[in-house]
Every structure is written in structure tokens, then in C-alpha cells.
Design a protein that fits this description.
- The protein is about 45% helix and about 15% strand.
- It has about 325 residues and is an alpha/beta fold.
- It has a 6-stranded mixed beta sheet with strand order 3-2-1-4-5-6, sandwiched between helices.
- The protein is globular, with a radius of gyration of 22 Å.
């Protein structure tokens, strides 16, 4: 699996995350993806190369796409992963060195690919395999990021007891405090009241928090939060503030887009005006006229201006604003 991360790209044709998957069972893989993530094409362009991992055809097919910004190798057989790591890194190192010969579009011409390309490799429990992989790295463009064995990425110690969990708890506390309810309980008590989906949403927001803070370093100062919070109960005043402060409006727009994308990546399919249907599986029409099934939500409106015109959903704009100010809070002090 390789791809490039371009969440705010304005380069035509590369506005979305691009994911390229290598799997000999192309149709089976595509079917699994569509079943689990019926609206994934709203946020990703997915390409599937129908080939075995070590086929030379893989390099030929990859050369048709822009240089990736990440790669992950996660076949169940660690021996395949080792071979694939060697083949893929040799190819990508060569391509990085000779990148002027791989002009595959505007993205490659305009994108700074960074100092190195992270390659995540599943290694199971055999330390010898890890050492073998580590020894294979000799200062090239690709850098190994191993996972597996005692460090499975979704175990309790790596999720529940990790820094990301603490940061998610901190964000949730700051977010609720802006709404005037954070003081009613401790951060842990508030966290325990959240269901699985809202905890996952807070983890995603915690991961996004540092990027928002970095953006805030480069833009004009936002209005004082009290100026906005005092208008929270009046939607017309909130919309007026967004017109007065276009930078805040843009940040809230981006936050809503991030929130939408999180839900599309969690099995949601689209908008339903009835709040009581939130999270329910419903048939949903797509552009070709077919009906597909997925979870719906009364705030899943992609167009920010349309959301602000919607008589019901416009009342949720304030929550996108709360999220921006919660990201700006110093969570380390909580």
C-alpha cells in the first residue's frame, strides 16, 4: 500500500488522499473496501494493482503514479514483507534520485517529498527479521517503521494508556469547557461518559490538534473566544461573526471537512435531515443511480456554505468553532 497525503491540495486531480494497493485479488479487495467504507471515494482515490507483491509489474504500475509520501507493507507472511521491503525501497530510492525522469503530473513537480519516506513493515515476533531489515537500511530515502509482535498498533497499552489517549481526553475537556460543561466533572469522568465512536473522534481530533496550532502560528490572531462564545446561542450572530472574521470561517470550514472525512472513514455514507436517524444504516442514492447502504448523519453536508444555509444543521456550526478554539487551548496544562 502506497499513497500521498494531500488533504488541502489545490493541484487539479490531486485534491484527495491517494491510496494504491497491491493485491492479486483486485475485485475481492475492492469489494471489501466498499463494504466497510461505502463513501470512501469522497476522501480517497483508490487504485488497486492486480499483482503478486514481488512481481516486476508492480514497479511498472507504480511508475504511472506520482511519488508516494508513505508506504505500508502488511502481508501476513513476514518473509514476504522482508522481500517486498527490499524491492520497494530499492525502487523508491532509485526513483527519488532520478525523480526528474518520472514526471507523472503536476503533483510531482510541485510537491516537496520531504527528507525521507516512511515505510511501515509488519514483522510479527521475530527480532532477527527486524535486525535484518534494519541492516538493509543504508542511509537511503526510505526509512523503516516496524510494527508487530509485542507492539501491535491496536493493543491496550498503545491506545488506551498512550499519549494519544491523554491528548484526546485533554481535547475533549477543553471542547466541553468552551460549552460551559467541562467544570462539571474531571477529564477522566467526562471521557468515561463517551461512547466508542465519540472517543475515536476525539483521538482523531487530538492527532489533528498540532496541525491546527501550526496553522495558527502563521495567520492573523483569531477573535477572543469569549466574543464568540457569548453569541453561541444565536445562530444569526454566529454567522455574522464568521462574515466579520473570514479566517475563523475558513478554519471552521476545514474543521467541518475533517469531521466529515472522519465519519466517511468510519462507515458513514451521507446526509439525512432527521436527527433521530443519526448513526442508523440507511439506503443512500449515489451518482450512478444505485442505492448503497451506510450510516447517515444530519450534519454530513460537504458544502460549507450549504451547511450554513440549512435551517437545521446551521445550529451545529458553533461546534466546528468550538473545535478550533479547543485545539488552540494548551492541553498540557489540563
Amino acid at each position: 500500500l502506497t499513497g500521498d497525503l494531500t488533504p488541502f491540495s489545490r493541484i487539479k486531480g490531486y485534491e484527495k488522499l491517494r491510496v494504491t494497493i497491491v493485491d492479486h485479488d483486485k475485485e475481492g479487495t475492492r469489494s471489501k473496501i466498499k463494504t466497510m467504507y461505502p463513501a470512501i471515494e469522497k476522501i480517497c482515490n483508490i487504485n488497486i494493482i492486480a499483482a503478486d507483491a514481488l512481481d516486476r509489474d508492480v514497479e511498472t504500475e507504480l511508475s504511472k503514479y506520482p511519488m508516494p509520501t508513505y508506504a505500508a507493507i502488511c502481508f501476513s507472511d513476514p518473509s514476504i514483507n522482508i522481500g517486498m521491503f527490499r524491492e520497494l525501497t530499492d525502487y523508491l530510492n532509485m526513483r527519488h534520485i532520478n525523480r526528474e525522469h518520472f514526471q507523472t503530473g503536476n503533483l510531482e513537480k510541485h510537491t516537496d517529498c520531504g527528507k525521507y519516506l516512511p515505510v511501515a513493515v509488519y514483522i510479527d515476533k521475530n527480532e532477527r527479521e527486524l535486525l535484518e531489515l534494519m541492516g538493509y537500511q543504508h542511509g537511503g530515502y526510505c526509512r523503516l517503521i516496524a510494527f508487530g509482535g509485542m507492539e501491535h498498533i491496536l493493543n491496550r497499552s498503545n491506545i488506551v494508556d498512550s499519549r494519544i489517549e491523554q491528548e484526546a481526553m485533554s481535547f475533549n475537556y477543553a471542547y466541553l469547557s468552551l460549552q460551559g460543561i467541562g467544570h462539571l466533572a474531571t477529564p477522566m469522568e467526562l471521557w468515561k461518559k463517551l461512547d466508542h465512536e465519540k472517543r475515536a473522534s476525539n483521538r482523531a481530533q487530538a492527532a489533528n490538534r498540532r496541525y491546527i496550532r501550526r496553522i495558527l502560528d502563521y495567520i492573523p490572531a483569531l477573535p477572543q473566544k469569549d466574543e464568540i462564545i457569548l453569541c453561541a446561542a444565536d445562530t444569526d450572530k454566529i454567522l455574522s461573526k464568521l462574515r466579520e472574521y473570514p479566517t475563523l470561517d475558513q478554519l471552521a470550514c476545514w474543521e467541518h471537512r475533517r469531521w466529515n472525512n472522519f465519519h466517511y472513514a468510519s462507515g458513514y455514507i451521507g446526509y439525512d435531515p432527521d436527527p433521530s436517524n443519526k448513526g442508523q444504516l440507511k439506503p443512500y442514492p449515489v451518482e450512478n443511480g444505485d442505492m448503497i447502504y451506510g450510516k447517515v448523519h444530519n450534519c454530513l453536508i460537504d458544502d460549507w456554505e450549504e451547511l450554513k444555509r440549512n435551517e437545521t444543521s446551521v445550529t451545529t456550526v458553533i461546534y466546528d468553532i468550538y473545535a478550533i478554539y479547543a485545539c488552540a487551548e494548551n492541553g498540557d496544562d489540563i
